[in-house]
Amino acid sequence: RPVVQGHVLVSPRRVVPRFGSLKADEVQDLWALARVVGAAVEAEHNAPGLTFTIQDGVAAGQSVPHVHIHILPRLEGDFVRNDDVYDAIDKAEALHRVDAEDRPARTFADMAAEAAALRRRIPNLDEP
User: Residue 49: in which H helix or E strand, if any?
Assistant: First the structure.
């Protein structure tokens, strides 16, 4: 469930549970990709800013055992206090547990349309 419209996740290809388990080149690639995807998200949603965040470990609110960066397009006044975005991310992470009964469904078609819109803004992204 997205915290705000345009909220996306970027993750490395290799599945690792914690940020510290990534190799140096994976960290570099992950943040380089987050920069590119962030620019596309910002343009697609006419956002004047972005929040990039990682919840590293269960104690930090991580609910999926695969490192990922949250990228959120931000608008002036989208949260009463700017840091309230982190509480919203924590709440959304709890709903993303695979076994969460109240986890809202998103259709594959919705996600595919969002991905296609962002892909058009990233012209030279290599296919896997």
Answer: strand 49-53
Q: What is the pLDDT of residues 96-116, one digit of tens each?
A: 554 445 545 678 888 888 888
- Show the CA angle centred on residue 15, arms to residues 44 and 45, nearest 5°: 5
CB 40 within 8 A of CB 17: no
The encoded tokens of residue 120 equal 């058009």
Query: Any idea what the Cα angle at residue 89 is, between residues 87 and 95, rounded to 5°?
Result: 110
**Is there a contact between 56 and 105 (Cβ–Cβ < 8 Å)?**
no
CB 2 within 8 A of CB 70: no
Beta bridge partners of 50: 73
Catalytic residue numbers, as ranges: 68
